[in-house]
């Protein structure tokens, strides 16, 4: 999509800064929940007792439905196939790379060895070919040192205010976070968190989502009340409506959506399961700014991620 049009109240190109009009997606031909990541991803569930072929076919249909739905709304979708058997989480490309205004691509170190093979030169080359890329920053060499920062799973980036919100976990190393923020000119805002079982939530993007005019946030899992209040105030002062979601809604992937720019304005892509969990008031507050676009991805969600995790946003200028 070459010329996205925003909502009438979006303030010029403001909407395009936070809500990209293009994404990268990956079609996994041998999808399965990854046993290597289950230890700290409480959202993962076992694969149902059906054949591998049937399960993989379900996953492909869901990925295709997401891509098709987004394209129908005017979002540009770059789709890549993964035919390999050693990258069960490749459907979640937002963890290994991110893109940034000004022409920067950043590649990240991944905690699970099986996820490191998701990095692909052909995706980077496509971005260089079709968008203006000035620099590729690669932090993946820090993996042997046990330092990990899993992209926009670990970080929720406020591109308007240039803040990186990060739930503390073993997948968000503070050393790399500081290095990343210094390099791209963002301010890190790390917060402690615990689920009801007392464990840190594996990725921030299941508990938080930032759009142009609203933010979804599960405040009840933030264990430092002063930091919680600081983050809510920061988001509010940025002009956003901060919408609190409950932990129960988090388990339905209510926080795992992404605001995008389509031909008719902003949309909020999320799973059908997530959309069904919103209260009428929450839905109205989201839709004051962006149209909710729910897509059914129950098979993909067994791997512990949802629609947001499936989308790597492109914040680069077209050539």
Helical stretch tally: 10
CATH superfamily (homologous) name: L-arginine/glycine Amidinotransferase, Chain A
What's the rounded overall pLDDT mean?
A: 93
Beta-strand percent range: 15-25%
Q: For the report, how would you describe the main beta sheet?
A: 3 strands, mixed
Low-confidence parts: 1-12
Structural shape: globular
User: In the CATH hierarchy, what is the class?
Assistant: Alpha Beta
Quote the distance from N terminus to C terminus. Answer: 12 Å
InterPro entries: Amdntrnsf_FN0238
Pfam families: DDAH_eukar
GO molecular function, one term: transferase activity
Keywords: Transferase
Structure write-up:
Keywords: Transferase. GO terms for molecular function: transferase activity. This is Amidinotransferase. InterPro entries: Amdntrnsf_FN0238. Helices cover 27% and strands 22% of the residues. The chain is α/β, with parallel strands linked by helices. It has one domain (15-313): L-arginine/glycine Amidinotransferase, Chain A. The strands form 5 sheets. The protein has a 3-stranded mixed beta sheet with strand order 2-1-15, covered by helices on one side. Strands 3-4-5 form a 3-stranded mixed beta sheet, with no helix packed on it. Strand 3 (97-100) and strand 4 form a beta hairpin. The longest helix is centred in the first third of the chain and has 21 residues, at 52-72. The radius of gyration is 18 Å and the shape is globular.
């Amino acid at each position: 999509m070459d010329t996205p049009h925003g909502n009438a109240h979006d303030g010029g190109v403001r909407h395009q800064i936070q809500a990209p009009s293009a994404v990268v997606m990956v079609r996994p031909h041998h999808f399965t929940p990854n046993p290597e990541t289950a230890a700290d991803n409480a959202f993962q569930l076992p694969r149902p007792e059906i054949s591998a072929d049937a399960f993989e076919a379900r996953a492909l249909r869901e990925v295709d439905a997401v891509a098709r739905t987004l394209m129908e709304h005017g979002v540009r979708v770059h789709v890549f196939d993964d035919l390999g058997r050693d990258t069960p989480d490749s459907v979640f490309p937002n963890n290994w790379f991110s893109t940034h205004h000004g022409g920067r691509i950043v590649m990240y170190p991944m905690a699970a060895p099986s996820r490191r093979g998701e990095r692909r030169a052909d995706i980077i080359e496509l971005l260089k070919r079709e968008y203006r890329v000035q620099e590729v920053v690669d932090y993946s060499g820090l993996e042997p040192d046990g330092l990990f920062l899993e992209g926009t799973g670990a970080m929720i980036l406020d591109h308007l205010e240039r803040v990186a919100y990060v739930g503390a976990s073993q997948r968000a190393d503070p050393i790399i976070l500081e290095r990343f923020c210094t390099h791209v000119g963002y301010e890190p805002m790390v917060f402690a968190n615990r689920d009801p079982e007392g464990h840190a939530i594996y990725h921030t993007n299941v508990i938080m989502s930032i759009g142009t005019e609203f933010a979804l946030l599960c405040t009840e899992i933030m264990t430092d009340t002063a930091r919680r209040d600081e983050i809510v105030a920061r988001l509010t002062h940025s002009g956003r409506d901060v919408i609190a979601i409950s932990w129960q809604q988090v388990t339905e992937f209510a926080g795992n959506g992404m605001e995008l720019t389509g031909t008719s304005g902003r949309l909020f892509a999320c799973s059908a399961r997530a959309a069904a969990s919103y209260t009428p008031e929450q839905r109205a507050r989201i839709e004051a700014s962006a149209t909710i676009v729910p897509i059914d991805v129950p098979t993909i969600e067994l791997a512990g991620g949802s629609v947001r995790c499936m989308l790597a946003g492109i914040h680069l200028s077209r050539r």
